[in-house]
Each structure stands twice: as structure tokens, then as C-alpha cells.
Amino acid sequence: MKARGWLVAAAVVVALIGVHQLLAEPFRIPSGSMLPTLTPGDQVLVDKLDREPRRGDLIVFRRPRSDEIMLKRVVALGGDTVAIQDGALYVDGRRRRERYADPRAIDSVYFGPVRVPRGSVFALGDNRADSIDSRTFGPVPSSRVIGRVVARLWPPDRVGGV
Hints:
The chain is of the alpha+beta class.
């Protein structure tokens, strides 16, 4: 009877690991590139079933030409033209108001314009002055997206939506 109990316990553990790998996964924020939205040490929950990001979503993805896992904000979708002029983000020629980006942390660099290929997204850190993002490595193919951030799990005083 004990062997059967161990077998059931092992099956439950394997099932939980499988669910973890398929449905959702926690992710720890390693850097300040997403300040002020997320701080180093914050933990978020990533919905791995939702791999169709929308503009404004926070996504976790594998960096193009690398296996490094990153978290950034989608600012433009396939077919959009993106540019930065004097620190302000423009998508399809229109300036975007970014309530999540700290204007004091946006450097006054110029970028683009570039057209985002279909099947890709353009992802930037909220802390533009301290972020390696699509300005460096280019658009992120949808096949590299792991999932969409749905909630902050840690620290306890900031649990909830992001």
C-alpha cells in the first residue's frame, strides 16, 4: 500500500510541474529596466497561454538571437512604425502618452523610425535610460514570447495588477 501512495504522490508532483510549465509561471524581476512599474526583486505571474500580446502589455520573452529571458512592455505591434524623438515614443507618427514610463528617466535619444514586421512586437523597458530592449536587439518574433504578465505576486504590500 505504501508503494501505491508514493506512486500517487509522484504522479501529483509530475502533474503540478507539467501544469506549471504549460499554464503559468512566476518570474523574478532582475533589474531596474522596468522602473517605476516593477522594481528589482518583484515577482510577477506570467500567463503562458496568452501569447498574443497587445500594445501596453508586459511580456516575458526569449531575447532574439539569445536564450536570455527578458520582461518588457509591448509598445508597437506588427505593421506599426515606431520611433523615439527627443525621448518621446511615436507609433505610426502619433505621440504616445506613457503613464507607466517615468519622464525623468527617459533620455533624449532619437531612434527610428522602423517598421515592426508582421508576427513581431516592439518591446521597451519603462526605464528607457537603463534598458536593453528592442532598440538594441530589434523586434521580438511572436514565437519568442513566453507569455503575458497578469499580476504581481511579490512583495506582499504590492500584490495585484501591474
